[in-house]
Amino acid sequence: MMTRKSKTTAPKSLKANTSLGKKERDALLRKKKRKEKKAILLGMEAKRWYALIALSAFFSILLFPSILVRPQAYKLGDIADRDVKADRRFLVENTDLTEKNREDAMKAALYVYDYDPTAANIASRIKDAFELGRDYLTAYVDFSYAPETDGEPSKKASDEPSKKASDETMETVDSFKSGFFEILAIPYNDRLIDTLIQYDFPKDVENFLLSLVSQVFKIGVVGDRGTLMSQSGKGIILHDIADGKEKQVGDLSQFYDVKSAEEFVKERGEVEGSNIRPLQLKETALEMALLLIKPNLTFNKRETAVKKEEAQKSVKPFYFMVKKGEMLVREGERITSDHLLKISGQNRLLKQNDFLGRFPAMAVFITLFMAVMYLVGLLTRASEGSAASSKDLYFFLATLLTIFLVVIAFDLVSGEIARGFHYFGPRVLLFAIPVASGAMLISIFQGIRVAASFSLVASVLACLIVDGRVGFFVYFFTGSLVAASGVTQCRERGVFIRTGLKVGLCNMIMALCLEALYGSFFTLETGLACCSAFMGGILVGIVATGILPLVEMTFGYTTDIKLLELASLDQPLLRELMVQAPGTYHHSVIVSNLVEASAQAIHANPLLSKVAAYYHDIGKIKKPLYFIENQRTSENKHEKLAPSMSSLILTSHVKDGVELARKFKLGKEIIEIIRQHHGTSLISFFYEKAKNQAEKKGEKNIQVEEEDFRYPGPKPQTKEAGLVMLADQIQAASKTLVDPTTARIQGMVQKMMNKAFSDGQLDECELTLKDLHEIAKSFNQTLSGIFHHRIAYPEPIVKNASGRVEEPAGNGTEKSDVSKKGKNGDTDQLSKTDSAIRRAEDKAENGESLKRLGLR
């Protein structure tokens, strides 16, 4: 049973363990994802982007501050409690004048009259009516006419019509007569129709009617002449309903009204109807012509209203210009309608344009502009590490913000000053803005490339503040580039003033050009602009000189000026080093000579290398007697210590040196070189000593760890740090040379460089094989000069009383030493055979070292 139970429970236990392992893996995975997300959101790179975006938004707020401040609302009759000025140029609509203009436009709109040239097809209706009459006569009536006598027709048989059909009724006659008058659209008249029937609807009458009405209707007949003549001053629009065309008519007196048209018909009818006989027929024709006269020129009220509405809409609102800085209302004044109109116009413009349009657009514009420059690496030094790049970016942004605030202050102050003096404008004082001082500081701390990028960004922002004038962009950008290039090799503070003078001269030329472009060259304002521009250049140098120490302390930068101050041997730390550890002090001076000569050959910073070499071993001040160069007696304190303890004491001088450097504020660059000047190199003497002691004691189980005898590092990260490390090791090794000939020095240099190279101490710095070759050449030259040979001056010959020659005191040597010395007792003067053998050995060893380094 127990066996079964164990068999059945084992899989459950295994399943539980498997399930637990999966949960742990999921928890670890979630934890890892949270860390990655946190690193993305709160990492160094994210903080840089936050700084860029925040500063861009802040710039936009400063450009449009009205989005944060609610303007005070005034009512008609209120008393202004402060001066209100126009923040920018804007237009204000004059509603009263706009309405007046619209009313005038409506009044000036032309009336529309519909013109019917056919008068409702009057010609065709006359023809149709007479044709109908003739057809009626042909169908129902038979007239027999006798020859005319005295103009009167005579009937053959009877005056009564004869019927063709006996069943014709009077109803047919009435229908015909009604149809005739309906076609002509005139009142029913038996007398007229009977006369026409009597005379067979003669063609002469038809032509007479057509001629008269066509003449009248061609000109036009209006129903209400009074309304028409009210537009005589401006005319009317004549709309031809036949073809839809419109034309403007100015002479309205040409049109007939019904009365004048009838008079024209009567007058013209007497002339044209002279051939119509008998008189009764002529009178009938004239009466019909008068009945046919009706208005064919009618007023179109709807189209006229449309024209008036179009004219009203075509009138644009009337605006008047309010210029930037114009006083809208002064403190203590009563608010009038004009004041209220301007103030409300400005408030409305600021609220709508700034918050909804201009502020977001400007924020996106500045953010995108700076983001692109950051992405392509124009805002920081490309060779710096992550922390250094962040510091550089923050300094860049802080300087940009400072310059931005200075430009805003100058813009406001220049407007106020110019308002009190009427012989120059605010543009004159804008030439004195020290935008170039920011580029000067950036060039000193980050180099000319980043300074050029700063000049571009600062000039764009300054141009936006001063109303976006392109001329000022070129002015600021050119001055900034001149300032940045003038301080690339700045080793004394007088360089700032000299560069400021150069900027001032450049500014004067640019100011003259801008004044000439603005069209005011031969004026007092041009002279004032030149003076302002020159003073702006001087101000650039003064501002940079004053801010430089503050930047050094705030951001931990080390300039060449600071390095020159630290290079003074009267510095308290160096004086203490000279007193407490004179051997180390002498060693540091020689190392500084080595690195200064080599740094220029490999395009490193010679001044930084030299000063760092002065201070690289300042940590030995705390325990100077534990370092052999400071031991004045034959007693060695390490003889009584374990090798591991000796190793700890030696490595501690790096940590002590970093602490002292921070205490005396030597700068981050020097502190890093102190920390890196030994890299992770091995203290081989005590390491071998520890191994030998372990072997002698027979402690085979105890292994001596090599890591315990290495410096903590890090390895050199820059050319200067690598150079100081090589010089430190080679200078110390040069002290072990018994016979420091040129060949031996070269062999020693190559041996030590090969050792550092093969140990990987130079893997993380920027030194190349070509640089190592140049360093070796420089070290050989410098060390050969230090260990130069001198001629042994002979001692004077002294004769005793007996005339025998006595040897000078101290010139006697042991026999064993005679073989190793020259004739003058100098160990440097060896025999030719020994010297030749040693030179051959040194040459072979030197060649082998070069081959291992890859230099041969």
What features would you describe in this structure?
Helix 1 runs parallel beside helix 2 (44-63), helix 7 runs parallel beside helix 10 (279-292) and helix 15 packs antiparallel against helix 16 (448-465). By secondary structure, the protein is mainly alpha-helical. Among the domains are: 117-220 and 255-295, no CATH class; 384-557, Arp2/3 complex 21 kDa subunit ARPC3 (Orthogonal Bundle); 562-786, Hypothetical protein af1432. Residues 1-20, 143-167, 809-839 and 849-856 have low confidence and may be disordered. The protein has 31 helices and 16 strands.
Give the arrangement of secondary structure elements.
Elements: H1 2-42, H2 44-63, E1 84-85, E2 90-93, H3 95-108, E3 111-115, H4 122-140, E4 141-142, E5 145-149, E6 152-155, E7 162-163, H5 170-184, H6 190-198, H7 203-219, E8 221-222, H8 225-229, E9 236-240, E10 246-249, E11 256-257, H9 258-272, H10 279-292, E12 297-299, H11 301-314, E13 319-322, E14 327-329, H12 337-375, H13 386-420, H14 426-430, H15 436-446, H16 448-465, H17 470-486, H18 494-517, H19 524-555, H20 560-566, H21 572-580, H22 582-601, H23 606-615, H24 643-663, H25 668-676, H26 684-696, H27 719-734, H28 742-758, H29 769-786, E15 798-799, E16 805-806, H30 815-818, H31 832-853
Parallel strand pairs: 3-9, 8-11
Antiparallel strand pairs: 1-14, 2-13, 3-12, 4-7, 5-6, 9-10, 15-16
